[in-house]
Write a structure and sequence with these properties.
By secondary structure, the protein is mainly α. The chain is about 45% helix and about 5% strand. One of its GO terms (molecular function) is ATP binding.
């Protein structure tokens, strides 16, 4: 009986201690202005099942006490500052680099983020690190660069990198325009190769999307990428958009979309604020993008939004090669064929109004007879299925050396000219729309 009385007295003392402890904690939480829904002792002493059933109360207690004055943080991941942001949120906003430069691979991050379903060596940010800059190691040999073209492009690039020292407004954009097939884009690439410049090149096909705003954001993102090349790698860079009028120009029967408007607005904004470029994040004072020149190529800049091409935003350069330019460029094009300089001059004089791509197509046309002879030698067109595609370890078919002559080139050129005239004169599309074929009523449409 004595032992039973002692045990009962011990139990009573323990209950009084626990009640006093709960009262002290409750008073402390009320002084802090944050009443608790569960006690530390109850949360720590409760079994796992109790924690799961009363998870909401425990979470409220953790959220309430984690920022209380004088309290100790259990985890820095849960800590919030005066604005309510966690450590991870602040770390992301303070980062100076918006690019993904490290992949999620084993040994690089915590093992909790490594999943077995993709493989531990999978790189989940590969798409963000694909190289979008262009290098010109594929261009072999010596090519002719027109002096006027070289002078304009190099001056524009140098002016933009010296813009902070020029006491005048420097246009960020250079619009290179002219006739089709005059080698505008290729001349720009040759100049970049000579300067050691690593550009970011876009095409007109990237200026439209099913999602509104995507092309405009892509332009800003590519501009920032070119700025990273300057800032991080210490190389010159530029943003180039080829055939801008095909992707963003306004023609008589084309529709202007929201993306077209936003592309024009984005380019104007870049021209006005070339060092403050946002891709969706909040602006930060330290987030200054290096000024990067922009070069646009196209056939007709008058199809673009007039405020974009005004003086101060865009510098214009109309490119049409002179006779000397044509002779020098075609000479480089036909260098392996062993033609004399007099033959090149005669060829240019026979077709004086043709673009540069005409001379490349003319050279390619002269190989048609050579290919036909090769087809006959292998057994005819029905044998092609046994030859192509050429698999590894199989001998690749070889063409016999073809000796280029001025007569063959002129003959091929006249065939091309005849085809050009047929396309422009016949205009079969008009015939299809106006006159239905005989005996097939309803196929054609009669336009009044």
């Amino acid at each position: 009986m004595a032992s039973d009385g002692a045990s009962r007295s011990q139990i009573k003392r323990r209950c009084r201690c626990r009640a006093a402890s709960r009262g002290t904690q409750r008073n402390g939480s009320e002084r802090n202005g944050r009443p608790e829904t569960a006690t530390n002792g109850a949360a720590e002493a409760a079994p796992d099942g109790a924690n799961r059933t009363k998870g909401a109360g425990v979470n409220k207690r953790t959220e309430a006490n984690v920022n209380a004055p004088g309290s100790k943080f259990r985890s820095s991941w849960d800590a919030k500052d005066s604005t309510g942001r966690t450590y991870i949120e602040n770390l992301g906003k303070a980062s100076e680099n918006v690019n993904m430069v490290v992949g999620a691979k084993e040994g690089m991050i915590d093992s909790v983020f490594i999943g077995d379903f993709l493989g531990k060596e999978s790189d989940i940010v590969f798409k963000y690190r694909q190289k979008v800059t262009r290098q010109f190691g594929h261009i072999h040999g010596d090519y002719y660069i027109a002096p006027a073209f070289m002078d304009k492009v190099v001056t524009h690039i140098a002016k933009n990198f010296l813009a902070d020292q020029i006491k005048a407004r420097t246009p960020l954009i250079l619009g290179v325009w002219g006739g089709k097939g005059q080698g505008k884009s290729f001349q720009v690439e040759l100049i970049f190769r000579a300067l050691g410049l690593e550009p970011v090149i876009m095409s007109a096909g990237e200026l439209e999307s099913e999602w509104a705003g995507t092309p405009a954001r892509l332009i800003r993102d590519r501009y920032r990428t070119a700025g990273q090349v300057v800032k991080v790698q210490g190389k010159m860079s530029a943003l180039v958009i080829n055939d801008i009028d095909a992707g963003a120009g306004r023609f008589e029967n084309t529709q202007m979309t929201v993306n077209t408007q936003m592309v024009m607005g984005t380019l104007m904004n870049l021209a006005d604020n070339p060092t403050r470029v946002s891709v969706g994040q909040e602006f930060r004072e330290a987030d200054v993008v290096p000024r990067v020149p922009i070069i646009l190529t196209g056939n007709d800049l008058s199809t673009l939004w007039a405020p974009l091409i005004r003086d101060g935003r865009m510098d214009k350069f109309y490119w049409t090669p002179t006779r000397d330019d044509l002779i020098n460029i075609v000479t480089c094009m036909y260098r392996k064929d062993g033609l004399a300089e007099s033959d090149i001059e005669a060829l240019v004089d026979v077709f004086p109004k043709q673009a540069l791509d005409f001379y490349g197509a003319m050279r390619s046309r002269t190989y048609d007879n050579q290919v036909k002879k090769w087809l006959d030698s292998v057994g005819g067109p029905e044998k092609l299925r046994n030859i192509f595609p050429v698999r590894p370890g199989k001998e690749h078919p070889q063409l016999d050396h073809y000796q280029q002559t001025l007569e063959n080139l002129i003959k091929a050129g006249r065939e091309l000219v005849e085809e050009q005239e047929m396309v422009t004169s016949l205009r079969l599309s008009d015939e299809y729309m106006n006159s239905p074929p005989a005996g097939a009523p309803g196929i054609g449409l009669t336009l009044s």
